[in-house]
Give the backbone structure.
Amino acid sequence: MIKAKGYAAPSAKAPLGPFSFERRDAKEHDVVIDIKYCGICHSDIHMARDEWGGLSRFPMVPGHEIAGVVRSVGSNVTKYKVGDHVGVGCFVDSCRQCVNCKKKLDQYCLEGNTLTYSALERDGKSVTQGGYSNVIVVNEDYVLGIPKSLPLDKAAPLLCAGITLYSPLMHWKAGPGQKVAIMGLGGLGHMGVKIAVALGADVTVLSHSDKKREDAKKMGAHHFVSTHDPKVFQEHANSFDLIVNTVSAELNLNDYFGLLKTDGTLVSVGAPEKPYTVSPFPLLVQRRSYAGSAIGSIKETQEMLDFCAKYNVTPAIEVIAPEQINAAYERVLKSDVRYRFVVDMAKL
Ligand code: NAP
Ligand code: ZN
Ligand code: ZN
C-alpha cells in the first residue's frame, strides 16, 4: 500500500482536518500521481456536509479538481509516463460496457460511474478518497493529460468547473450569433463566461448582486445583469438562446424561463440541496426547454483541456494552504470567492 496524507471531513458536522490513509499499490493499468494542486468545488461542500441525500461516506477526503505529476506507472500503462502533467476529475472508473460507456459518454454510465471520492470502487468494497491529498492512484483510462503550457494550479479547476460548463456549451452549440447567459459568477460560472466568449457567443452574466460587474467585464462578458432588481426579468424577457444555471442555492427558476427566446433552453448544472418548483406555463408558452447536464466524458474533458490550452482560457484562482480549507468553505458559501480556491498540496 502507498502511504497518503490528506485533509478529511470526519463527519458532516465537523470541520476538515489532517488525515493519514493508504492508497492501493499500482495495478498494471494504474498511474500513481503526486498531487500538486486541488481545486475546491462547491460540490465538495455539499458532500462534506452530507447535503445530497446520503451520498456521503466518512471520513471523507474531498476534491475532484486534481492536477499533478506522474510518480510511477503500472507495468501495462501505455498512455502516460513518469513526469507527465496529468489531471483527475469527478470520476475514476465506470462500467465500460453499457451503451453510454461504449459511446464515450462515460459521465452518464448507466451503472453509475465511480466518483473520485466518497464512492465504492467497482469491487464494491473499497471507498474512494479524493484530491485534498498528496498522492492518488487511478486507472490510466480515467487520467487526463494536462498540456504543459497550462500551469498546474490553474489547470486544476478545469477538471470539474471547466468541463461542467464546456460540455453543455458544446452540446447546445454556443457560438457566433447565439445569445448565452450564465447564471451565477462563481467557480463554474466564471469558466462558463470564459469558454462561451472563446466560442464566440454573445455572453451575459446574471448575478444576484452588482458586486461582480467589473470582474465579469474583465473576463470578457459582453453584458452584466444584476437579478437583485426584479424589473430585469421584464426588461430582458425573450432574450437568450441558452441559459446555463450554475447557482448553488435555491431560487425561483420560473422567473428565468421568461428570459429565454422561443425554443430556448435553460440548463441546470448547479445542484442546490432543496428541489426547485418548476411551473409548466413559462415553458409551454414559448416551447422553451428545461434541461440538466453533469460534468463531461473523459474524451470531452481531454478536448476541453486542449481547447483551454489553445485559447489560453484559465480560471481566476486564489491558492491556499490546507489549513485554510475550512475558512475557504465559509467564503464560498458567502459567494466571496474570486473565483476558485486551489489548495497547494506541497503545504500538507
Ligand atoms: P460557487 O463558486 O459557490 O458559485 C455559485 C454561485 O451561485 C455564486 O458565486 C453566486 O454567484 C451564486 N449564488 C450563490 N448563492 C446565491 C443565492 N442565494 N442566490 C442567487 N445566487 C447565488 O459554486 P460552484 O463550485 O461554481 O458550483 C455551483 C453549483 O454547481 C454547486 O451546487 C455545485 O454542487 C454544482 N456542480 C454541479 C456539477 C455538475 O456536473 N452538474 C459539477 C460541479 C458543481 P453570483 O454572486 O454571481 O450570483
Ligand atoms: Zn465539482
Ligand atoms: Zn457504463
